[in-house]
Automatic annotation (TrEMBL):
Residues 726-791 form the Disease resistance protein winged helix domain. InterPro entries: Apaf_helical, Disease_R_plants, LRR_dom_sf, LRR_R13L4/SHOC2-like, NB-ARC, P-loop_NTPase, WH-like_DNA-bd_sf, WHD_DRP. Residues 875-1184 form the Disease resistance R13L4/SHOC-2-like LRR domain. It comes from Castanea mollissima. The keyword Transport does not apply. GO terms for biological process: defense response to other organism. Keywords: Membrane, Plant defense, Repeat, Transmembrane, Transmembrane helix. Residues 478-647 form the NB-ARC domain. Pfam families: LRR_14, NB-ARC, WHD_DRP. It comes from the Eukaryota. The chain crosses the membrane at residues 13-37. GO terms for molecular function: ADP binding. The keyword Oxidoreductase does not apply. This is NB-ARC domain-containing protein.
Amino acid sequence: MAISPVFSNLFNFYVLDFSILLIVLLSALIIIILRSYRSFQRLKKRFEKVSWEIKLLDALLKDVEAVSESGRKIDEKAHQLGNSQLRSVATVRLNDVTRGWVDATKTVVRNVQDWRKTYDELSERRKSLKWIYFGFPDYKKIHTLQIDMDSCSSEINVQIVEIHREQICKFVESSRSTVRSLQDRPIEEDKRKPYQKHAKSASIEKKLKVLISKTPDLVSEKQKQVAYSINFPLQLLIAFLQDLEGLILESKIEEAWVEEAHDTIDEIQHEIERKQKIPTLMSWLPYFGNLITSRKLMKSFSGMESRLSRLFLRKQEFGFTFVKRYQSQPVHLSPQKQTQATTLEKNIIVLLDDFSNKLKHAPPVATYQLKQLEKLFHQVHQFLKEANAVEGIENLKNSKAAWKDQMKAIIKDANISLDAYIRISTSKRSNTQSETDPWQKFSAELGEFQKALQLLEVRIKLCRIELKEETNLEVGLEEDIHEIVTQLTTKRDRFSTHAIVGMKGIGKTTLAKMVLNNKNIQNHFHYRYLVSLPDSVDDDKNLLQKRLGHDVLPPPEDGKVKDYTFKEVKDFLKARKYLLVLDNIMRKETWDTLKEAFLDNKNGSRILLTTRDKSVASHADPSCFSYRLRLRTKDESWDLFRQMVPEPQLSQESKRLAEKFVRRCGGLPLSILSTGYLLSGKDTGEFSRALEHINPYQAPWRDNWETNRKDLSPILIKCLSHFAQFPKDSEISAKRLVALWVAEGFVEQTDKPLESVAKQNLKHLIECNLVQELERKHNGKVLSCGLPSALQELWSRLESPDSTLSPDQRLPYYFVQMDTISSQRHGSSLNSRIILQKCRNLSSILFFDSREGDKPGKEIGDFLRMGIASGHLLHLEILDLEHIFRPHLPRSIGRLTRLKYLGLRWTYLEEIPSSIGKLVNLQTLDLKHTYIHTLPGSIWKLQNLQNLYMNGIYRSSFAPQQRGNFLDRLRGNLLQNLQVLWGAFMDNDSPLKDALKLLKNLRKLELAFQLDLSQQNELAKSLVELNHIQTLRLKSIDEMGRPQDIDLNHLSGLVNLSDLYLFGKLLKPSIIVNIIGLPQSLTELTLSASQLSNDPMPELEKFYNLKSLSFFSGSYIGKRMVCSNGGFRQLEFLKFFLLQELEEWTVEEQAMPHLKRLEIRSCKSLKVPFGLGNLKSVREFKIEDMPEEFKTSIEKKTKELNWGEGDIAIFTDNIY
């Protein structure tokens, strides 16, 4: 019994020890678990931070790799072009520092990705009770991972500093723009969708305000701090994301930052929702509950502030920008608009003035800091105004509003705070017992205001969208796209084949791709396919089946290569309405093989071929619509080149050389783009040297000549040969060329006027891509043209197929200054005597001399005098002296009785010999841009004269004649063949006043006159008798050339009139505002200074053939215009210029259904046209010298109408 207590005590002792040990072990385990938990929470926060930064770094790495890979593909072009020596540097060049950054960053990213596996295991374990069992080993892993994260954070900071110092993001964006400019057109964009704004962002600001308002007693002292540090940046972030809506994010870094911005907004929203419940949960603790709630809220606010600050800080450190590319000139704010204050800006100015006035009453102790704050206010306000006026910033509508609101709020708070401080300071001076010092509190508030202003300035810099001009545009294809899309979408159920025809490299594939991407095509054809065939494809049926099936049919599910049949393709397409592009069909046999795959499914499906041979197109479908793609014009060529080699990269000399070289490319996009590629990135010295060694491609021109040669008539070959008479790279006026061809006899005799036939010949050569159209009018008429340089070189090596163009009959006589581009002469400037001995019986001489001064004129005068005297020039039919400065025409020129063409345009001659009247066979006399005031009376003897061009600006007129004898001679049929009289001037003494009505064959007449009303009545009677007139330009002027009254009768009897221009106040407006006043044949109408007070549109819109309508200064003085439903059925061009009174223009539905070009210039009172969206066919919209509000409204309106998406070009220029 005695032992029992001993055992009992011993048992109790061990039990106690065991209990103590168990408690100790459990406590230790709990401590380890708690430490492990807390360590993991710290690790979690650190890993989340590191993960986001790694995401940004990884995104930038991908951007660097992507732009480098694109650059590498561009560099491969050098070898394909055969000029790799000219492309000695890579398109995208990484320097050693950037390469080192790439390698180091890859290592960091790889390490974090490896550590993520360990972190994910730890994180997964935390979701179950396993963490209780693995607390100790987890703690070691967590500790190790924390050390790795610390090391990684340091390395990340190093890499970010390197990004900022080396401006890697700017390098990537610059390289991306360079690559875009060099890529094939159109760029095959990836499938990135436009950015969509965050769905939750709209309510988060309200929830934050509710959270603050529910606990005003807890955070009353911190409300400004919360507003400035959380609400302000959050407001700016949300506004900025709203402004990003619809923007294509081009880079991975942009996507990563936006994704983190979304996560930040989500996290803050979640935190706000959690904290809204705290005041309710703690309401049972009267004092401690408030204290705990306040501390939790302030801690939460601190976390929100930290997250937002980190988001903006990383954007600043990385230095990347969001980019929006535009396709037309952006709107520039005028100086007046930059300084004009909006209502909100005026409110800011009032508040600033109020603050400045209050400074005068502030205590001296606060003066210095208040002055500093005032200075900062004005500094940020000025920065805000500049940012608001910066080009393109109109896209940041929401951000701009947020900037101004926050600026206003800070100034308002500062005013309230200053009021309170002055009031308290004043009361303290009057109450000496007060012990509180208001300065300490006020000083802290001033610090908050300064901090808020500085952060606002930084965030304004960060929250921007940079506008950059798109450097990969398809220049000069707008009209082509419209025409082809119109043909393809015409409602016809019959299956049909269409074709784009043009030489190699002219842009057929580019045009076809743009047609496929056109929104009207996408709406019309639900299925669209592109099948491209290589140049070397044969007519192997199996090969063609494979190519067609691969590009049309869905890929096999197993991913294996499959053989296809035409039947499979036919069965797949028969139930579909499709547009299929067969690109590069070289031979008729290729089409014959392929057509087995297509059948007429009676649902309006279309085939669009691209081919170099028009006979292939007609073979595919005799009724085929073939669109002949032209060479680019001079301006279009330069625009295309400038995309690849921006003008800022060029010195003045380099630009001059580049323009000459681009001209040598002949308007062929392949040649222009290849040249631009080879020259891109070169400095001035390299640029000039490279230009000397680059030659435009010869192969496409040779192939095109061989393709078209068989279809050219002998007459067309003569016309083409005639270009060889001009210096290389000459820009030749189309009018001059047509007149020369007529004089040379290079036209077939038909029932049409010879001039019209010659124009058709020129059009045909342009369509065959053998002649480049250098400049054209808005209505498509050719102004100037030229033979492509490569084709001219090719022609010089070929044996002339026209034996009539031998050197002894046609002489190009010129002296041309040589340069590094034009290294070859065409012609001769030898001694005149030697030339005359060598070239007897010349039929044509074209003089070219670019020298200044009197020497060229004297030399040419001596040559003519010698040649006429010796008889060597007496067979001359063509004498063209255009651009020769004041050539000395000998009086013996009258001996050249066979002369048909005498060209003196741009010679600045002051007189011509009276012996000109002996040139009885003269057909064309061109005196435009001379100083010849009066033509000799002998001019009336030129019975065969058809075209007479005079200088209207210099008031060229006919010499006065004695009326009686003069009228008798006129009735003797003098000048009976005159068809064109251009630039003539008529006054009371002019014999033309009586002679005009006798010139029955006139087709074109430009006449300026200074006549009283009675004389004008006689003129009006003469005009209505000109039954063959087609083009009529009339100007009523005074001594200074200013518009005067013009009195005309109705012209409706002139049934051939198509082009009418009237300058002067119409005394009989009924000629315009009454449909019987003008003939229905009218296609072009231009009015200037007409002073019409009633809206002319209701009558003019009834002219169903009218295609061009222009209202110039003072033509209409009314306030309103209306284009009604169904009016102007054929109108293609409409221009308003300097209509100062016009305020409203309404376009009703179905008005002007075919309008292509619209131009509004200097109509300062005009509001945005009502019904602008009804102009659905417009391809080009020019706005010039219009109020800023008008341009901004137009841009907004066009965006609403989905204009500017490749279907319409909108140009806004400013003249201030």
